[in-house]
Amino acid sequence: LKVINCCVWDPSGEIFELKAELNSDKKEKKKEAVKKVIASMTVGKDVSALFPDVVNCMQTDNLELKKLVYLYLMNYAKSQPDMAIMAVNTFVKDCEDPNPLIRALAVRTMGCIRVDKITEYLCEPLRKCLKDEDPYVRKTAAVCVAKLHDINAQLVEDQGFLDTLKDLISDSNPMVVANAVAALSEIAESHPNSNLLDLNPQTINKLLTALNECTEWGQIFILDCLANYMPCDDRESQSICERVTPRLSHANSAVVLSAVKVLMKFMEMLPKDLDYYGTLLKKLAPPLVTLLSAEAELQYVALRNINLIVQKRPEILKHEMKVFFVKYNDPIYVKLEKLDIMIRLASQANIAQVLAELKEYATEVDVDFVRKAVRAIGRCAIKVEQSAERCVSTLLDLIQTKVNYVVQEAIVVIKDIFRKYPNKYESVIATLCENLDSLDEPEARAAMIWIVGEYAERIDNADELLESFLEGFHDESAQVQLQLLTAIVKLFLKKPTETQELVQQVLSLATQDSDNPDLRDRGYIYWRLLSTDPVAAKEVVLAEKPLISEETDLIEPTLLEELICHIGTLASVYHKPPSAFVEGSRGVQHKRLPARMGAGLGVAPAAMPASLGGAPAVGGGLGDLFDLGGGVGMPTGSYVAPKTVWLLAIKAKGLEISGTFARRGGIIQMDLSLTNKAMSVMTDFAVQFNRNSFGLAPAGPMQVLTPLSPNQTIDVSLPLSMSGPVMKMEPLNNLQVAVKNNIDVFYFSCQYPLSLLFVEDGRFYRQVFLATWKDIPNDSEAQFQIKDIHLNSDVASNKLQGSNIFTIAKRTVEGQDMLYQSIKLTNGIWVLAEMRIQTGNPNYTKTNGFRDCMQKQMYDSTSVVRFSSK
Amino acid sequence: MIHSLFLINNAGDLFLEKHWKSVISRSVCDYFFEAREKAVEPDNVPPVIRTPHHYLINIYREKIFFVSVIQTEVPPLFVIEFLHRVAETFQDYFGECSETTIKDNVVIVYELLEEMLDNGFPLATESNILKELIRPPTILRSMVNTITGSSNVGETLPTGQLSNIPWRRAGVKYTNNEAYFDVVEEIDAILDKSGTTVFAEIQGVIDACVKLSGMPDLTLSFMNPRLLDDVSFHPCVRYKRWESERVISFIPPDGNFQLMSYHISAQNLVAIPIYVKQNISFFETGSSGRLDIAVGPKQTMGKTVECLVVTVHMPKVVLSANLSATQGTYNYDPVTKILLWDIGKLNPQKLPNLKGSLSLQSGAPKPEENPSLNIDLKIQQLAISGLKVNRLDMYGEKYKPFKGVKYVTKAGKFQQRLSEWLLVHTEV
């Protein structure tokens, strides 16, 4: 570490001298002295001892002197709170000054003095300044609210400053609007659910107007705020896009990227066959390309974001491959990002160009970059099948250079190419074998050994080659040892006669002389297999391998959607959701892209996104409920849906997870099947849930006691509790899960049936049912029709009881059976229902009312209740 | 928002700090120093560094690291743009942005930083407004100040601050009214070893120096506006008029500013003004090699290429170079392995040539890394894209201004890849 250059401050002479100068009668001398004090302060010297003397200079009509004293105050008030009080009077007086510059300066400085005692005195002047006639003062005061909130949030709320701030969004001056938005956004970050920025079409219109007239920085705040809005329909979405598009031509790249975020998000709602959709796509490319000609640091952030954009919408930049070509003097962080994007854009159409470039990069000086370039060639081969042959020959050319690290990287990727295209390129094995001696990195050695073992029957001297590795067995890394063990066993199975000695040697090395339990276990397993059942051994060891996935490095789609909503932020630089790393933002809401509307669908209410997605499910779920195949007359227990695949193996390095939810005897369980479709053993499983609407959380650790071997599946039942942290999700029953194993952490999301949450004691008091029913306001009511159910009311009632939906009362009116039912959710919310069944009519009408008896709080009526029972 | 700023020089000395919220200990910079060490070259320090409690976003300009500290989610581009703006403001105020000038003007620097951000929110970043708030130091004024005791801080609210045109102050008056526009184009290109274009584009800017009295409303039009693939404008430009009529209509800020920047990526339009022929060989027998570079004009549109400099990054094994240049001077730096050949003006009658021998580390094999060659040049009175300003009109004021347009083309990131080392078998 470098030692920070510390200046030694000699307190004896200088402070004393300055003190005298500060107390001088001459104005000029005073000012010069304050300047000297500030100069010392900026380089980190401690001049706090001069506090009273500097504060004494504050009452002056010289603006420069006043500013300097303010600068000093801001720096040292914290360490001298009692002294700082001395300054309060002057501040209050300055807030009344006829010069708006001084009024603004005073309120601004006061907010920067982070001393509790001062904040009390700040409230009155701040209130006045928020309503000042001069917009310069108002805009300064808006920021001051954010400052004060940072020091004392409660005070700001009690004093009603948040409401005043909200009013400023409608201010006539665009700069005031921008600052109010900025201040509110900052405050909202510490209150994620506070709904401070209540966006509706009117406020959006005001923001869009201010957008055209405010400063570049204000534009960034406004655009970032707009991005949080959910338009009502595709028409509104389009009109916002139209008004935001001119920002793409702004000179400030942060404005451009924020505009890109808004457009990327809102175009999600536009029908794809709309002409405007195509126009918008075309408009996005040039500004993104222009970002790449900015300074290197800007390029880096732009590239990280473009990486997301090309994954979401590859069509935008598919013709712009060349702008990502690496220049010799690009900083390394830019080079690596460009390389990554080149691979993502690689296609049959441009692969020749890409390969020529990659080959060029492989002769560069920077070793890290060269390695990445060689790997990239391998990724191209796997991604674009037609190019595989050309990639292999390029790699062979590179191997001929004999540059050590190039050869090693090339061998590692050729192994992957063999896996992807078996029995196609084995003719190159001879060339690879020539380079055996130069390999000194474990990954390359392991790859080479794998190749020799896999194609042992085609390599005449495979036994000699493997034997040569065996000499230094104990000096090899675990990765190489394991690979060597497997390769020799493969060799033995293919050529049993000549290699008996070799296999015995490796088995004894692995089982007797090794400290590594993985190696020993694998050795024993092979040993037993070979000695008991050679045929089975052949089936196991030489089994056909699953193909490797095309692109293992794509970002998981739900995460990608969330990151698209966060374009331009730190999250987009790290490619992680903000909740994963931003400190102090407790309970960040996960943002989702809006759903696309059908072209002719027209208007749907914006406030009900959940019901939009969930509505069809209600019908479907209820259809299941009255399935005729079920037992008649008996409660059948809660319905358990069959397992569905939640995590695809190609997205999780070979781990496939499917599962379902069940409620058994009052305990909620998540039933999982874990399948290992990778080549190596998986261990150390653990599971975690993100915050969710009902606080579902694992009640204990996931019990996977034995390691999961390739091609093995195990079933696990994970009991869940309801004691986890709560955050409203959309849809309401969405659950985001992280599963960890020894390889990596994987994320997926799934949806649980709401009936999972219906508790066993959900029988409402019969006496008060009717009264409660009448109390429920209309807007907490929902009505559905359930079609094509051929059950009588008793059977239906019995079936529902299996899912903890209890019939409280029944009456028959004019040939209609009316069932009154109740459900209680795990969080104490009651749902009351009335079901009308007309005998002979297969369509039921069901009215639900939601009531939270515990908290006297109305339940969000947009939520979807999904009944499933069989 | 932006919490703090630290300025650190190339030697790793932290020489200025500024906090806009609470004070953050400078020990947070240890994470930066760690990254700095790891990056080896100062250019390679990653712009965003994560620490347990903060994020450090930094830029490297004029041998100074501007390291900002943020604590909550802030758009990194916003921070980077702002930091560049700080560096530009220093440049604007002090003539250069260096450790010495910053230290010499530390109080003004502090006042500027205070004026540019409030609580981490940008306050005044327009040069026109800042200069009204805080006057830049001049030798004359500092003399006058010491005599009369007047200040360098403006006493009134900048007039532009709240008008609809915040970039312009009111009451501007000149005796000579002039408006100059410089069309500056830079060619970014990668050429392969035979000189064929792999990739080329033009980055153009129009810098303006407008000294006009009152509130002039200007309109600038091009002969061929369709050439431009992407444009970014100064906030003063009315975007709607550009969209509908392809003219640039604006009320200019007072003084120097960048009116617009543009981008031309269509490759067939990018003319390559010179060619480079090179030959580099390696003698199998001894630790030596030969280098031969010749430069000549290609598509110069009849103009002269000036300030021509060729830079070659040699592989590590090249110890020294013994060359002779028919024009200009050359220098080989054995530490950075950079060969620099300053040619000057390119004379089409007598093409410059640099050739001679290279001495290599003894016993070293033929280098695998191919050298790469960067070119710097300048062509006056030419916009290589062919972009031409048609006319400039002024409305809103009665006087007749003096108008001028200048064109210049430069090399941006212009590089040619060199062919592989030629292996020469010499008979002993």
TrEMBL record, chain A:
Chain ranges of the Beta-adaptin appendage C-terminal subdomain domain: 758-859
Primary location group: membrane
Pfam families (alphabetical): Adaptin_N (PF01602), Alpha_adaptinC2 (PF02883), B2-adapt-app_C (PF09066)
Domain Clathrin adaptor alpha/beta/gamma-adaptin appendage Ig-like subdomain as annotated: residue spans: 639-749
Coiled-coil boundaries: none
Record keywords, A-Z: Membrane, Protein transport, Transport
GO biological process: intracellular protein transport; vesicle-mediated transport
GO cellular component: clathrin adaptor complex; endomembrane system
InterPro entries: AP_beta, ARM-like, ARM-type_fold, B-adaptin_app_sub_C, Clathrin/coatomer_adapt-like_N, Clathrin_a/b/g-adaptin_app_Ig, Clathrin_app_Ig-like_sf, Clathrin_b-adaptin_app_Ig-like
Subcellular location: Endomembrane system
Domain of life: Eukaryota
Membrane topology: Peripheral membrane protein
Family of the protein in this entry: Belongs to the adaptor complexes large subunit family.
UniProt name for this protein: AP-1 complex subunit beta-1-like
Protein species of origin: Sinocyclocheilus anshuiensis
UniProtKB/TrEMBL annotation, chain B:
InterPro entries linked: Adaptor_comp_med_subunit, AP2_Mu_C_sf, AP_mu_sigma_su, Clathrin_mu, Clathrin_mu_CS, Longin-like_dom_sf, MHD
CDD domains: AP3_Mu_N
Lineage: superkingdom: Eukaryota
GO cellular component, one term: Golgi apparatus
Residue intervals of the MHD domain: 176-417
Electron transport is among the record's keywords: no
Protein's name according to its UniProt entry: AP-3 complex subunit mu-1
Originating organism: Sinocyclocheilus anshuiensis
Annotated gene: LOC107655430
